Amino acid sequence: MSESFAITTEKRQVFYPESDGKPMAETEVHIDAVIYVREALKDYFRNAPDIYVNSNMLLYYEEGNPTACVAPDVFIVKGVTKQERHIYKLWEEMQPPTVVFEITSRGTRLEDLGTKRALYEMLGVQEYFLYDPLGEYLRPALQGYVRHAEDFQRGVSNSEDRFVSEALGVELQLEHGRLRLMDPLTKEWLLSPAEAQDARRAAEVRVTRAEDARRAAESRATEAEKELAHLRAELLCLRSGTS
Fold first, then answer.
1. Residue 36: which H helix or E strand, with range?
2. Alpha-carbon distances of 75 from 53, 59, 88, 97, 240, rounded to whole Å
């Protein structure tokens, strides 16, 4: 007597956490650098529907393995939509990050220069930039790696404080040790929305002060004209009285 058994298989449901429980950065200086790069690039590419910018989001690169993940400080992906995401699954998006920024620190410098660099190289990242905001560990404090064929090579810079990102079309510069991004065409700094608002307010204050100064000058000129007219009238009266 034989028995037949129906065997059913179900795809195992894998949970991919949205957080690794690690802090965003070690210090306020590092956090400010991450926020600036993310917000400045988000604003710069705000009208590009297929360029996605985010930071500290878990990027999973091996389906079915939730331990195969990395959380870049800032990453930019070309060729995907700007839709809201909680995690980034490489096998669904089908596009690796185009550019990655790591704001390195005492606790992350070895990983940033070793494990992460090798991983980003394997994933197909085009450009990888490291920045040490305290200038304590990296020499120079701003470094870049660019993909050539299958491997990363150290980016060529005209100086120790300047790089050009061909992938993003922006320049990276250190201004008094602080990482800033520049539009190479306009030669203007890329600003985060908060910085742009502060700049607009400062400009408005300057315009208001200039207008107040102009009005004050016009008022003084009017008063001087009146005083001159009064003196002329008095002089005419004196001349009339002596004739």
1. helix 28-44
2. 6, 10, 11, 6, 87
Kind and range of the H or E element at 129? strand 127-131
- Any idea where the domains of the chain sit in the sequence? 28-191, 192-243
> How many CB atoms sit inside 10 A of residue 144's CB?
21
Q: How far is CA 88 from CA 56, 59, 101, 108, 151, in A?
A: 11, 5, 16, 22, 23
pLDDT in tens, 105-148: 877 777 888 899 999 999 999 999 999 999 888 888 999 999 98
> Does domain 28-191 fall into CATH 3.90.1570.10?
yes
Q: What is the pLDDT of residues 208-232, one digit of tens each?
A: 566 666 777 777 877 878 887 887 8
Which helix (H) or strand (E) covers residue 227, if one does?
A: helix 193-242
pLDDT in tens, 26-80: 788 999 999 999 999 999 999 999 999 999 999 999 999 999 999 999 999 999 9
Question: Distance from CA of residue 79 to its chain's centroid?
Answer: 19
